Amino acid sequence: xxxxxxxxxxxxxxxxxxxxxxxxxxxxxxxxxxxxxxxxxxxxxxxxxxxxxxxxxxxxxxxxxxxxxxxx
Length: 72
Fold this sequence. Notes:
Oligomer: single chain
Number of strands: 3
Shape: globular
Low-confidence stretches: none
Number of helices: 2
Strand content: 15-25%
Mean pLDDT: 86
Radius of gyration: 14 Å
Helix content: 25-40%
Largest sheet: 3 strands, antiparallel
Order of helices and strands: EHEEH
Strand order of the largest sheet: 1-3-2
């Protein structure tokens, strides 16, 4: 399962159309102006490939994880 979230309704709609055109199974939800798409029924390789294609297609950047704080 792969999940995308955005606060942009426009981007959310574009991603929905993109996934529909690729015939990908997904669900959507909205909570406090955050739009969420959850993609399922893809293997790890298929999900990775789809994410790469979507990142390029929509000119997105990966959100980098911040380093974990050291335990005191």
